[in-house]
């Protein structure tokens, strides 16, 4: 059963694809019924009209990944990251700070700002695509970037652990799975228990 696309809407507005409500229903229906190519086609027409909406690229990248078109998925995820980065850094440049201490505090808390979570999601999905292409070292770098933008991204910890395990870096894999377990990830907890490792 395909993962429901509705989870995307839990994130900040820049991630939401720009399509009409009827088109979005068509995308959801196509995705959830396994007709990923139809969803790609609908999102492609939306991208032609709204080329600077990162959400269109992320969701289309998810569809490409389900079609095993990982190179196209990676292109879309990279495009979404580029768009989100430009928007976020432009917004940050416009913000003014009273003093250096306030600027430091705001920069330390930036990951709690929901605007960064779509960027973390895009990097995590990019890592997932590289994992499927067996590019484990590249995937680790993608997951690192996902965690820079949102340090509570449980899936990034789990998947980075998987990539490190494939790279034969057992200590890093166990450290990532332990972090995921401490954040409540049941599969990591079970795996570590099975390996006899306290988390």
Q: Describe it for me?
A:
By secondary structure, the protein is mainly α. It folds into two domains: about 1-95, Serine Threonine Protein Phosphatase 5, Tetratricopeptide repeat (Alpha Horseshoe); about 100-199, Tetratricopeptide repeat domain (Serine Threonine Protein Phosphatase 5, Tetratricopeptide repeat), CATH 1.25.40.10. The chain has ten helices and no strands. It has helices at about 20-30, 35-50, 55-65, 70-95, 100-110, 115-130, 135-150, 155-165, 170-180, 185-195. It starts with 20 loop residues before the first helix and ends with a helix. The relative contact order is 0.09. Residues about 1-15, about 90-100 and about 110-115 have low confidence and may be disordered.
Which structural class best describes the helix and strand composition? mainly alpha
Q: How many β-strand runs?
A: 0
Terminal residue distance: 31 Å
Shape: elongated
Helix-strand topology string: HHHHHHHHHH
Instruction: Catalogue the unreliable spans.
Output: 1-15, 89-98, 110-115
Sheet with most strands = none
What is the CATH C level class of the largest domain, in words?
Mainly Alpha
Strand content: under 5%
- Fourth CATH level, the homologous superfamily of the largest domain: Tetratricopeptide repeat domain
User: What is the domain total for the residues?
Assistant: 2
Any idea what the CATH architecture of the largest domain is?
Answer: Alpha Horseshoe
**According to CATH, what is the topology of the largest domain?**
Serine Threonine Protein Phosphatase 5, Tetratricopeptide repeat
Helical stretch tally: 10
